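User: Before I run my own analysis I want an independent prediction to cross-check against. Here's the chain; please return only the structure tokens and, at the end, one sentence I can use as a sanity check.
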Amino acid sequence: MPAARPRRLHLNAFLMNAGHHDAAWRHPLTQPDRLTDLGYFQHLARTAERGKLDSIFFADGLALWGKVKHNALGGFEPLTLLSALATVTQRIGLIATVSTTFNEPFHTARKFASLDHLSGGRAGWNIVTSGTVDEARNFGQDEHLEHGLRYERAREFVEVATKLWDSWEDDAVLLDRVRGVYADTGKVRPIDHRGEHFAVRGPLNVQRSPQGYPLLVQAGSSEDGKEFAAQYAEAVFTAQQTLADGQAFYKDVKNRAARHGRREDDLKILPGICPVIGSTEAEARALEQELTDLQVPEYGLAQLSGMLGTDLTGLPLDGPLPALPEERDINGNKSRFTLVAELARRDGLTLRELIARLGGGRGHRVVAGTPEQIADQLEEWFTQGAADGFNVMPPHLPGGLEDFVDHVVPLLQERGLFRTEYSGRTLREHYGLPRPAGRRAPAATRAAPQTPATPASELPKPLKGNRI
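Assistant: Structure tokens:
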């Protein structure tokens, strides 16, 4: 019996403009003037690929987040950007965020199938439900949908998208030039979906892509979010502050997946980590303090107000959090609300201290230290049942990513925890996940198979000088 393959980390680079720290754009290490410069993102993508990372990832929202007066916000739509980055990379996965709240399944399925073809099978979809009133107001609504209803819509949305990706079978294209038959129409079928939220006839107008489906990623940690992840997600981006919290989340979601008839390995848990790296711990902490000193309190207070669903304007920065609503009354990001509220209460933080703590990771864990200390932290969570890998959030770019790739990744490779070369070509292969087989129509309803393609040797010879 062959020996089991050693378990290896999965590493995703979460790329955000000048970096994840909300004051990164003010630091001389960053290049905030290049946020709409394709060359900047090409460099970041190539850097991540040089480190053999599984994937790069772009978040997205359908409104201008935060106060643009005090942060370098805005930029490219992620699917458009990743299509461009596909042309300058060969192996690294390309994950884009698309909301199920203010999009349609047909558009979304078509775009991801296109990216998967363009990249040779490297597309991933981070499935989110929009959670802010600013997004709703960009789509003709005064308020956004209720939290539970957003997840109901998301479930049906994903079901429709997967049906559309399955509407072409792998061998549907015959390409029979002699008989004039491009595709077997018995293998390109309408989906005829009619549900609570969507009516979609299909089929998709893109052939089945290299991966069948993009890698399905999910980023919510509320009760609705965990249940959604357990049913559909293949990778989960999550936020926990402590090893114990990470272990509890990991066990909970894996158990839920089992109840949906899935194997534990079908779903990878990737907590976020914001690594502030220095050649010494003192150097790393000095950089962390430099970034904190550059924060604009007005910006941080506005961000915190959004996370907590409570207007904190005018409250003393050196005072405690005011009384907060219950999680059940929050119609935005419930899991982030609870994480931030518990962090403040557990550590007795003032508003100013809480803003500083959230500056680098917005609730994700921030670790300042040497490459060895960062690697130790990743190894501990990986080996102690809290993570299958990590969503790496460089606090400043491009240097924060370069430092991670050049100094932390080699340590993980030396410890046998991370690949030294890519062994597969698709994103699913990087994550050790199978390619979906696709859903075939029942035999009684399928059309008779059409004549297979004529061998090339039997095709008529082209006329001389006949060129296209």
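Sanity check: Confidence is low (pLDDT under 50) at residues 441-454, 456-460, 462-468.
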